[in-house]
Amino acid sequence: MKDEGQRRRRGSREEAAFVDLLRTTDMLSRGPGRAIKAADLTSNQYNVLRILRGAPEGLACGEVAERMLTRDPDITRLLDRMEKRGLITRSREEKDRRTVVTRITAEGLKLLGKLDEPVQEAHRKQLGHLGRERLRALAGLLAACREKVE
After folding, report:
1. Ordered domains of the chain (ranges, CATH)
2. Of 4, 5, 62, 89, which is most buried, counting CB atoms within 10 Å of its CB?
3. Has residue 132 got a pLDDT over 60?
């Protein structure tokens, strides 16, 4: 018989679902992560490039931080490294000198373009077998989870 310290505590269904989500997130991030890492980028840097590609007019640093998939407490340092590498530029706005606008460079767009197909292929390999309807249902369930958190 197991002593009290060795018994596994039965968690709630919510806890089990949470652990499953964490485990699945870790596993799913590995596929695209390999392509991103091969380009000498972190997942957060890749995320910034994707955000900025969708905002050709540029975004303030705080807005980039708000759109990130995962929170990076030191967004300024992240952007510093990317600017040094020539993937983004930052400039003060003429109208409001307090605002610094971040934009993706041609080099950043080129790198992101090279990653588009390998990352999409990784997503197809990992989730394509679910089919359109199950993917839509999964997206709906995940959105419902986020509603109560945000």
Report:
1. 33-149 (1.10.10.10)
2. 89
3. yes
